[in-house]
Amino acid sequence: MAQDKTLRQRIKDGEVLVALRGSLQTSKNELADIWATGRYDYIWIDGQHTAFTEESLVAYCIAAEELGIDVQLRIPHTRHAYLVGRYLDLGCSAVLVPEVMEEETVNDALDYTYYPQVGRRSWGGEARRGLRSAAKGFNRLEYAKWFNDYVILSIQVESVEAVTNIQKLAKPGVSVVTFGPNDLSFNMEGHTGYPLKTVEDCMLNVAEQLEGTGIRIAMGTGTKPEERQKYLDLGVTLFQEDPPA
What is the sign, positive or negative, of the torsion defined by CA atoms of 131, 72, 211, 6? Predict the structure, then answer.
């Protein structure tokens, strides 16, 4: 499946990338106009805190793929990690599991993100990313190999437990660790004796623990370009930004 460097490879290479904080209400023409600004590298859709239907997600992902854009979905709940294959069947090429604290959650996400023999994801789904290209001559095993190299699995750090245990949670097959600063702040406020005192301290600590792994750090809330340098200095390479006003 010939193509330029994938988003996953760009992430691994440490490129500074910006996700559009997208809305499934955006039409294909509107999305094309937004993309023409050149400000964004992929789309982030929040399935945790906003309403959506599977049909709307499929339609949006098809439109995005036709424009050459990757879509990341933050899935609705931590305990839905075993359903990441289902969400990938609907057309996104990246998934983010929120509020990860336990290895079992990551194991479920890994199992159902990747096809055999890497994982145990089931075969099926007409809306899958790249399937229309695969249908032009790529068989089951070729598509599975391509997708296993293409998909992006992210986990969200929103607790001191996750920060402390990030080396156990950021397993091979995870591409990104995303910080949720608001929920992490809630959690830190309940751990008054924790030696790391700020979200920024936690970011730097995680960056040091992940050094050399190729796993990158994302900011899980929107930022403006002028706000990013302090996070870049802490090891963050992935950001989110609202659409143009």
Answer: positive
